[in-house]
Design brief:
The protein is an alpha/beta fold and 269 residues long. It contains five helices and 13 strands.
Length: 269
């Protein structure tokens, strides 16, 4: 294994992915920040060891505001993971982005509150840059592979991350749509920035399951039923699995992106 690590690539998401990996082992890991959301599955894909962790726990038992994001990222780091794929279910804030589409986000807006969102509580103050929070190298791989296999996707977009577990009011949703933001979700923050603090690459793939409530009544948009959401989510998982199976083997051995040197010049002593 590269660098004597247990896994090179990590994936946060639902159980549908690892069912198709060649499973090697299942690990229970402790970190100084507590336990991660669940045990971590180590699988193999084309000679690459992949660590898989359901961020909500198996059975979806952990709501978004209760996820121990620091423990999840620290556990991946402990295993030697350097690149993380962070797919998530999301709502669309724009009429042209339809249920079933994918958005490979390049920006986020944080609207959460009271989440522990840094590893650096002192004694040295540490300011990482999140001007471009998602790894450009991993984004390029995912964008290219999505196009190659014919997935309807958008190569950039802003995800607004709300606290949850409640959904937005119509007024909140219209505010977010009016800002031009594309996607709404509850888990992207602080997952992505914690990965950057650990100098890990991170890419988001937003799987659009429905239109957010602020788009109700918009010309050409019909209300989505719960049955629609379940069907779209299942279809999206199939497409996601295909995309990950194409993208992960293209992850480079050596990194030259901003993620790999995020702490250089960030510490004020």
């Amino acid at each position: 294994m590269k660098d004597k690590s247990i896994a090179e690539v990590g994936v946060f998401g639902g159980s549908g992915f690892y069912n198709f990996l060649k499973i090697k082992e299942e690990l229970s890991i402790d970190t100084i920040y507590g336990k991660p959301s669940d045990t971590i599955i180590i699988g193999e894909l084309e000679g690459i060891n992949v660590a898989f962790l359901p961020r909500h726990g198996r059975g979806h038992t952990i709501p978004p505001h209760k996820i121990n994001y620091r423990a999840n990222i620290a556990a991946m780091k402990k295993l030697g993971v350097r690149q993380i794929f962070g797919p998530c279910a999301a709502g669309s804030l724009q009429a042209n982005i339809k249920p079933g589409d994918f958005v490979i986000c390049d920006q986020f807006v944080d609207r959460t509150n009271c989440r522990i969102d840094t590893f650096y509580d002192g004694p040295h103050t540490t300011h990482i840059s999140t001007a471009d929070p998602y790894c450009p190298g991993l984004r390029e791989i995912v964008i290219n592979e999505a196009r190659r296999i014919g997935i309807t996707s958008y190569s950039k977009g802003t995800v607004v991350v709300i606290q949850g577990p409640r959904f937005s009011t119509k007024s909140e949703s219209r505010l977010y749509s009016g800002q031009g933001w594309e996607v709404i979700n509850m888990t992207q923050y602080p997952e992505v920035t914690l990965a950057r603090e650990m100098e890990m690459c991170y890419v988001n793939i937003s799987l659009i399951t429905d239109y957010d409530v602020g788009l109700e009544g918009h010309p050409g948009i019909k209300s989505v039923t719960s049955q629609d959401v379940v069907r779209i989510f299942k279809d999206n998982n199939e497409k996601l699995r295909e995309l990950l199976f194409k993208a992960i083997p293209r992850v480079p051995d050596k990194r030259h992106c901003v993620c790999s040197s995020a702490l250089e010049g960030a510490v004020i002593s």
